[in-house]
Amino acid sequence: MTIAVSLVFGMVLAWLAVTAVLIVLLIYRALLSSREEDQLFIDRGEAHLAREQQEIVKKLARLSPYVWTFFILAIVLGVAAFGLWVYQQLR
Fold it and tell me: Distance between terminal CA atoms of the chain?
Protein backbone atom coordinates (compact mmCIF):
# COMPACT_ATOMS: atom_id res chain seq x y z
CA MET A 1 0.00 0.00 0.00
CA THR A 2 2.88 2.40 0.75
CA ILE A 3 4.41 1.88 -2.68
CA ALA A 4 1.11 2.66 -4.40
CA VAL A 5 0.59 5.81 -2.37
CA SER A 6 4.11 7.03 -3.05
CA LEU A 7 3.73 6.26 -6.76
CA VAL A 8 0.52 8.32 -6.98
CA PHE A 9 2.17 11.08 -4.98
CA GLY A 10 5.22 11.03 -7.25
CA MET A 11 3.04 11.19 -10.34
CA VAL A 12 1.10 14.12 -8.91
CA LEU A 13 4.36 15.92 -8.14
CA ALA A 14 5.59 15.27 -11.68
CA TRP A 15 2.27 16.54 -13.05
CA LEU A 16 2.56 19.68 -10.93
CA ALA A 17 6.10 20.33 -12.13
CA VAL A 18 5.18 19.86 -15.79
CA THR A 19 2.09 22.03 -15.37
CA ALA A 20 4.14 24.77 -13.70
CA VAL A 21 6.59 24.78 -16.62
CA LEU A 22 3.63 24.88 -19.03
CA ILE A 23 2.16 27.89 -17.23
CA VAL A 24 5.49 29.72 -17.37
CA LEU A 25 5.78 28.97 -21.10
CA LEU A 26 2.24 30.21 -21.71
CA ILE A 27 2.91 33.43 -19.80
CA TYR A 28 6.11 33.98 -21.78
CA ARG A 29 4.27 33.33 -25.05
CA ALA A 30 1.54 35.80 -24.05
CA LEU A 31 4.14 38.44 -23.26
CA LEU A 32 5.84 37.89 -26.62
CA SER A 33 2.62 37.93 -28.58
CA SER A 34 1.50 41.14 -26.89
CA ARG A 35 4.46 42.86 -28.57
CA GLU A 36 3.53 41.42 -31.97
CA GLU A 37 1.65 43.74 -34.30
CA ASP A 38 -1.01 42.55 -36.73
CA GLN A 39 -0.19 45.20 -39.30
CA LEU A 40 2.78 47.48 -39.75
CA PHE A 41 2.76 50.69 -41.75
CA ILE A 42 6.35 51.79 -41.89
CA ASP A 43 8.57 53.97 -44.01
CA ARG A 44 12.27 53.60 -44.70
CA GLY A 45 13.29 55.13 -41.39
CA GLU A 46 11.31 52.56 -39.42
CA ALA A 47 12.62 49.42 -41.11
CA HIS A 48 14.04 48.25 -37.78
CA LEU A 49 10.44 47.75 -36.56
CA ALA A 50 9.89 45.14 -39.26
CA ARG A 51 13.04 43.31 -38.18
CA GLU A 52 11.87 43.38 -34.55
CA GLN A 53 8.53 41.91 -35.57
CA GLN A 54 10.28 39.16 -37.53
CA GLU A 55 12.35 38.31 -34.44
CA ILE A 56 9.20 38.08 -32.33
CA VAL A 57 7.57 35.77 -34.88
CA LYS A 58 10.68 33.56 -34.91
CA LYS A 59 10.68 33.33 -31.11
CA LEU A 60 7.01 32.39 -31.10
CA ALA A 61 7.62 29.73 -33.74
CA ARG A 62 10.51 28.25 -31.72
CA LEU A 63 8.41 28.26 -28.54
CA SER A 64 5.35 26.55 -30.01
CA PRO A 65 6.66 22.93 -30.02
CA TYR A 66 7.68 23.22 -26.37
CA VAL A 67 4.27 24.51 -25.39
CA TRP A 68 2.54 21.63 -27.18
CA THR A 69 4.94 19.07 -25.71
CA PHE A 70 4.39 20.23 -22.15
CA PHE A 71 0.64 20.52 -22.75
CA ILE A 72 0.37 16.91 -23.93
CA LEU A 73 2.71 15.71 -21.18
CA ALA A 74 0.62 17.48 -18.52
CA ILE A 75 -2.56 15.85 -19.82
CA VAL A 76 -1.00 12.39 -19.97
CA LEU A 77 0.50 12.65 -16.48
CA GLY A 78 -2.73 14.01 -15.03
CA VAL A 79 -4.85 11.26 -16.53
CA ALA A 80 -2.34 8.59 -15.51
CA ALA A 81 -2.17 9.85 -11.92
CA PHE A 82 -5.95 10.01 -11.70
CA GLY A 83 -6.31 6.55 -13.22
CA LEU A 84 -3.77 5.09 -10.81
CA TRP A 85 -5.52 6.75 -7.89
CA VAL A 86 -8.92 5.34 -9.00
CA TYR A 87 -7.38 1.90 -9.48
CA GLN A 88 -5.87 2.10 -6.00
CA GLN A 89 -9.21 3.12 -4.47
CA LEU A 90 -11.09 0.30 -6.20
CA ARG A 91 -8.60 -2.32 -5.09
Answer: 10
DSSP-assigned states of every residue in 16-27: HHHHHHHHHHHH
Is the CB of residue 14 less than 8 Å from the CB of residue 77?
Answer: yes
Among residues 83, 72, 70, 67, the alpha carbon closest in space to that of 12 is found at 83
Q: Domains of the chain: which residue ranges?
A: 2-90
In the chain, % of residues over pLDDT 70:
86
Nearest alpha-carbon partner for 11 in 73, 90, 89, 80: 80
Tell me the per-residue pLDDT of 59-81, one tens digit each, with 9 for 90 and over: 999 999 999 999 999 999 999 99
